[in-house]
Amino acid sequence: MTIDLHSLVGPYALDVLDPDERDEFEAHLSDCPTCREEVDGFIATAVRLGEAVAQDPPDALRAKILAAAATTPQERPTVVPMRRKRPLRSRLPGLVAAAAVLVAGAGVAGYVIEHQQVENVRAEQSAVELVMTAADAQISDTQLNGGGTMRLVHSASQDAAVVTVSSLPALDDQVYQLWTMREGVPQSAGVIDGSDMKYVSGVDGADQVAVTVEPSGGSEKPTSLPIGTVAI
Hints:
With 232 residues, this protein is an alpha+beta fold. It folds into two domains: 5-132, no CATH class; 138-231, Immunoglobulin-like (Sandwich). The protein is 37% helix and 24% strand. It has six helices and eight strands; from the N terminus they run ααααααββββββββ. It has helices at 9-13, 19-29, 33-52, 59-71, 88-105, 115-132, and strands at residues 138-143, 149-155, 160-166, 174-182, 185-192, 196-201, 208-215, 228-231. Strands 1-2-3-6 form a four-stranded antiparallel sheet. The protein has a four-stranded antiparallel sheet with strand order 5-4-7-8, with no helix packed on it. β2 (149-155) and β3 (160-166) form a beta hairpin. The longest helix has 20 residues, at 33-52. Residues 79-89 and 99-112 have low confidence and may be disordered. Residues 6-36 form the Putative zinc-finger domain. Residues 95-227 form the Anti-sigma K factor RskA C-terminal domain. It is found in: Cell membrane; Membrane. It is a single-pass membrane protein.
């Protein structure tokens, strides 16, 4: 059976491919800028998730962090070839930790991660993985008016979808916003960046996912015609 290599972006980022599939996809990745951008979108999302659970610590904790950093030997960085990037699932803790070290080193308050917030991040990552690897996952792609693409991975058993957009033109004082459509009635699924991934829950009964251009901050209802839709 021939495998659509473009459909392996999510499983590759989540490190659920077998070795042969991984090697085949990485060979494809070197010649496919669209898939490389989608993989980078997964990584960028991981960084934002790490930043989302960060808080400023008290001054006493900041002083302890800086004192420990000054007396702890620093290991030389490990150089990882571009062709053998570590998967998203294994990189997420490192990305969060790296962000904390950079902030502390710059003299800005370090990061304190609350237990519940960490659990929320883990739950979202787990939910994305369940959709991407579900036996009933369905993949649909579309070109968007004005440039860019949208990919929808939908799982009825998970009652959720993962939407990935790439190469959308930059906007001034406007945002791209996702909508689930039920018999023509839109419901906001949140704003999305020009190259990003978004988990959308509660899609049972929806027949389409649409993307529109809206004023900064998003809208309660669409103010423009969709630049693209994907059937669920």
